[in-house]
Write a structure and sequence with these properties.
By secondary structure, the protein is of the alpha+beta class. Helices cover 33% and strands 17% of the residues. It has helices at residues 24-27, 33-41, 44-51, 87-96, 113-128, 140-146, 183-194, 198-215; strands at 8-10, 15-21, 59-60, 104-108, 133-137, 155-160, 218-224, 227-229, 234-235, 250-251.
């Protein structure tokens, strides 16, 4: 319950939800087949809605790798294999890869409830598609430590803040857990770093987005929003920032 005098604000794209794969291809032998099958299997909106407490204003369905709020890099590309809800395709990909129900170690934490809810609901959907999910619930510090060693897990759940340039998306690099080493992805990242023409950079970013859904280095779900409340006497507060900022903020007496 929000008392009078406490305006409520949604934050802007506070968390871009992803599932990162560390070694799922070592469990499912053919490269990228594991994540492609995962991507095909999931029905995203029921997961997002549940995590957001059933409130439509706290989640957004969007395939773009940049949120609407970063308009310069937001994409609207039709036909991407996002939210396919295609269990038959997932089962076919698993069969073609020779998957034999080996357990996939899925790491999450209850310290961030939304991470745990994402993992639990995803596990149920994946098992219906033929995956064998070993859900490992650990504290956040342990997850952060383990995710740097691909031998200790296959997949983990996390969220990303907003990135203000295509070259800032750390999950498209080999230096962040998940370790994206696909030559095509890295090549476009290099081209984006060199190119200065805005239109050409946007064309490259759209190409990268299509490539992301083809190669599936990680699983993209959607956008989550937070909730903030302040007294009417708080002035100068900028509710559009991803995280709370209190510079140039004051109390009006």
């Amino acid at each position: 319950m929000i008392r009078p005098g406490f305006p409520v604000r949604n934050t802007s794209a506070e968390t871009l939800q992803f599932l990162m794969d560390g070694a799922v291809e070592s469990t499912i032998t053919e490269a990228s087949v594991g994540t492609a099958a995962w991507q095909a299997a999931i029905d995203i909106e029921p997961i997002m809605k549940n995590v957001a407490g059933g409130k439509k204003e706290f989640y957004r369905m969007d395939s773009s790798l940049a949120p609407v709020e970063i308009s310069a890099w937001h994409t609207n590309i039709s036909g991407l294999p996002w939210n396919e809800r295609n269990r038959d395709k997932a089962k076919r990909l698993l069969q073609e890869a020779g998957y034999k129900k080996e357990p996939i170690r899925f790491m999450t934490t209850q310290e961030y409830k939304w991470m745990y809810d994402f993992a639990l609901l995803t596990k149920q959907q994946l098992e219906d598609a033929g995956f064998n999910i070993d859900l490992q619930v650990v504290d956040w510090a342990t997850l952060v430590k383990r995710r740097n060693n691909s031998k200790e897990y296959d997949v983990f759940t996390t969220g990303m803040g907003a990135f203000y340039d295509p070259t800032h998306h750390i999950y498209l690099t080999p230096s962040w857990p998940g370790w994206t080493t696909d030559e095509g992805i890295l090549k476009i990242q290099q081209e984006l770093a060199r190119e200065t023409d805005p239109k050409k950079r946007m064309a490259l970013w759209e190409q990268q987005t299509r490539q992301f859904y083809e190669k599936v280095p990680v699983i993209r779900y959607g956008d989550l929003f937070g909730l903030r409340a302040t007294r009417n006497t708080v002035k100068g507060f900028n509710e559009k920032t991803e995280r709370v900022r209190f510079y140039n903020v004051w109390l009006e007496k």
